[in-house]
């Protein structure tokens, strides 16, 4: 029998209330297969979307999204919603395709942009007050997971909702996972509610209605719950129990978070399509192994991360040292203060955090870690242009904001050898230090410096006879540049330390007729601008050229594309340098 719909750009969600139960489950299976297909081809957030397919379909049976507003917390779990609003994940997360998050400029049905956790309740409250001020009539829905609800931002929003004299509908998607399994007191509370539906500890005294737990795969239960939610005069929490990864065997069996986000994979085996070759080095694993080795030797070491155990390659470390490792969930602000408390008490704390999430802890980094000036090392993963996750996840801003923080030294390795040397320096340096790094780099067998770091000077890794040009850069692209210019008379300096470098580093550059500062991993207001300022303070008389990422939000695409868009690609740099060398 021919189906009543096609999952394409012309799909009309108004048909969903007319489908019978059998047809609804067929629609759900078709959507899950489409999500699996597109994630296997392009990568994306797989498990979180598979787990809420029926739940999202049910929303379209009870609400009218021509007028009702829904905000998916983070927005990475909106794949089914996108499909049902005529966006069948074409070229998912590619520069010319559908975004992996809700995007206002992509569809009228996406009413809010986000990429970080726990913003939905505050946004929904704002939308509800706009509705009230305009005397309009529509529902405002915040869709949030149990992992996101544990973030302090949600408690601030809930606190204000109690006194806001308005109504929102909160759908609490409880799958006992954030990126990895949820933990903490709120997780325990939700487990108690699951076992005893009459125990409504969180919400009963806050003037919220509560309904649940509700089976997130049962269309009948969901329809009844949504009807009650619409009729409620107060804000209401719908506690919906789902299973992350439902519909794909390997994701269903994943209890660590491996399938939360996936790179392109083989659907039949669940394995990545492209295995890393022996030349691809994971900086994440390098630093995880270094910390593990240090924790074996030194009992006064602590490791902390905010729900990124799998991505930061910390599973083995956290399994072996359970008493000195802490995954604090999606709580970056807490993680920073928690880490500082150990440092104040004489421990050396390693705080692992992705660059994009580090932004959330800026106040605690400056107010607590920097001000107390104790032995804490921040290991900042996923720095530089990030690729397909786009504007909300770029790792390019930490370079700039550390320049506004006293007491911090900031460094970046080009390869594993640099990573080991910087790690050893951080171990001996009894003050706050941050090491930022790309997730991966390609080992090009370039000869590198093995000496112990005893000062914070730039390292001259290629010398020049005529002193015509000095290229100052950092990170893995230095390996490419050493290869490219091996036969050219150019000095190349490895700016291992981006902040806190010695005055001698600047004085050494004054000998050169031209200085080219190249930072393809940070915004122009970071290392690049500050080195120019330092050179000018020494009244440098030569020519200064700069190439760094503009202070902008960079859209999704391949990293190579983003480098071209922002004019930090290797080819344009090489052409610039050759023009200077050869006088054209």
Keywords for this structure?
Rossmann fold, 584 residues, 7-stranded mixed β-sheet, 22 helices, alpha/beta, 5-stranded parallel β-sheet, 3 domains
Compact overview of the structure:
With 584 residues, the chain is an alpha/beta fold.
Characterise the protein shown here:
- The protein is of the alpha/beta class.
- The chain has three domains: 241 residues, Rossmann fold (3-Layer(aba) Sandwich), CATH 3.40.50; 162 residues, Thiamin diphosphate (ThDP)-binding fold, Pyr/PP domains (Rossmann fold, 3-Layer(aba) Sandwich), CATH 3.40.50.970; 123 residues, 3-Layer(aba) Sandwich (Rossmann fold), CATH 3.40.50.
- It has 22 helices and 21 strands.
- A seven-stranded mixed beta sheet has the order 10-9-11-12-14-13-19, with helices on both faces. It has a five-stranded parallel beta sheet with strand order 2-3-4-6-5, with helices on both faces. It has a five-stranded mixed beta sheet with strand order 16-18-17-20-21, with helices on both faces.
- The longest helix has 22 residues.
Radius of gyration: 26 Å
Q: Any low-confidence stretches, pLDDT <50, length ≥5?
A: 195-199
How many β-strand runs? 21
Query: Strands across the major sheet, in which order?
Result: 10-9-11-12-14-13-19
What is the topological layout?
Elements: H1 21-42, E1 44-45, H2 47-50, H3 53-62, E2 69-72, H4 79-84, H5 120-133, E3 140-145, H6 146-149, H7 152-162, E4 169-174, H8 185-195, E5 209-215, H9 219-231, E6 236-241, H10 249-252, E7 261-262, E8 280-282, H11 283-297, E9 301-305, H12 315-320, E10 325-327, H13 332-344, E11 348-354, H14 355-358, H15 362-372, E12 376-381, H16 398-401, E13 409-411, H17 416-428, E14 433-436, E15 440-442, E16 459-462, E17 469-473, H18 477-484, E18 491-494, E19 497-499, H19 503-509, E20 514-523, H20 527-537, E21 543-549, H21 559-565, H22 570-581
Parallel strand pairs: 2-3, 3-4, 4-6, 5-6, 9-10, 9-11, 11-12, 12-14, 13-14, 17-18, 17-20, 20-21
Antiparallel strand pairs: 1-7, 8-15, 13-19, 16-18
């Amino acid at each position: 029998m021919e189906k009543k719909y096609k999952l394409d750009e012309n799909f009309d969600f108004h048909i969903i209330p007319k489908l019978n139960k059998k047809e609804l489950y067929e629609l759900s299976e078709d959507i899950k297969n489409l999500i699996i297909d597109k994630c296997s081809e392009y990568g994306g957030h797989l498990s979180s979307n598979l787990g809420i397919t029926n739940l999202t379909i049910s929303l379209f049976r009870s609400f009218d999204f021509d007028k009702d507003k829904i905000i998916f917390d983070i927005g990475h779990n909106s794949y089914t919603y996108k499909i049902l609003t005529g966006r069948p994940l074409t070229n998912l997360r590619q520069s010319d395709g559908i975004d992996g998050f809700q995007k206002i400029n992509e569809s009228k049905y996406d009413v809010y942009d986000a990429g970080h956790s726990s913003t939905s309740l505050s946004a929904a409250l704002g939308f509800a007050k706009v509705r009230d001020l305009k005397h309009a009539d529509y529902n405002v829905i915040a869709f949030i997971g149990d992992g996101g609800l544990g973030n302090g931002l949600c408690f601030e929003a809930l606190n204000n909702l109690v006194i806001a004299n308005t109504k929102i509908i909160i759908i609490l998607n409880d799958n006992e996972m954030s990126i990895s399994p949820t933990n903490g007191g709120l997780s325990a509370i939700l487990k108690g509610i699951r076992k005893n539906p009459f125990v409504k500890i969180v919400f009963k005294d806050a003037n919220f209605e509560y309904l649940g737990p509700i089976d997130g795969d049962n269309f009948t239960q969901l329809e009844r719950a949504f009807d009650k939610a619409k009729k409620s005069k107060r804000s209401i929490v719908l506690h919906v129990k789902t299973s992350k990864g439902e519909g794909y065997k390997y994701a269903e069996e994943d209890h660590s978070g491996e399938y939360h986000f996936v790179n392109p994979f083989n659907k039949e085996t669940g394995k990545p399509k492209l295995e890393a070759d022996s030349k691809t080095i994971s900086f994440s694993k390098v630093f995880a192994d270094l910390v593990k080795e240090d924790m074996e030797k030194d009992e006064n070491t602590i490791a902390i991360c905010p729900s990124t155990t799998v991505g930061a390659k910390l599973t083995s470390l956290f399994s072996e040292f359970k008493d000195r490792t802490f995954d604090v969930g999606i709580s970056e602000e807490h993680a920073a203060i928690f880490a500082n408390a150990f440092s104040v008490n004489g421990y050396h704390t390693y705080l692992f955090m992705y660059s994009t999430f580090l932004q959330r802890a800026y106040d605690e980094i400056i107010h607590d870690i920097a001000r107390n000036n104790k032995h804490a090392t921040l290991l900042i993963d996923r720095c530089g242009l990030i690729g397909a996750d786009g504007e909300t996840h770029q790792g390019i801003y930490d370079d700039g904001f550390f320049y506004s923080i006293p007491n911090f030294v900031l460094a970046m390795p080009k390869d594993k050898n640099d990573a080991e040397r910087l790690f050893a320096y951080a171990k001996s340096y009894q003050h706050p230090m941050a090491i930022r790094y790309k997730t991966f780099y390609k080992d090009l067998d370039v000869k590198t410096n093995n000496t112990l770091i005893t000062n914070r000077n730039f390292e001259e890794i290629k010398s020049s006879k005529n002193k015509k040009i000095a290229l100052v850069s950092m990170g893995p692209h230095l390996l490419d540049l050493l290869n490219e210019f091996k036969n050219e008379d150019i000095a190349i300096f490895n700016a291992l330390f981006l902040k806190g470098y010695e005055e001698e580093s600047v004085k050494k550059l004054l000998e050169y007729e031209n200085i080219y500062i190249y930072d393809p991993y940070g915004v122009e207001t970071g290392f690049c601008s500050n080195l120019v300022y330092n050179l000018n303070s020494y009244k440098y008389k030569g020519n200064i050229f700069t190439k760094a990422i503009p202070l902008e939000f960079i859209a999704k695409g391949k990293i190579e594309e983003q480098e071209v868009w922002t004019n930090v690609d290797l080819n344009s740099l090489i052409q610039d340098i050759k023009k200077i060398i050869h006088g054209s």
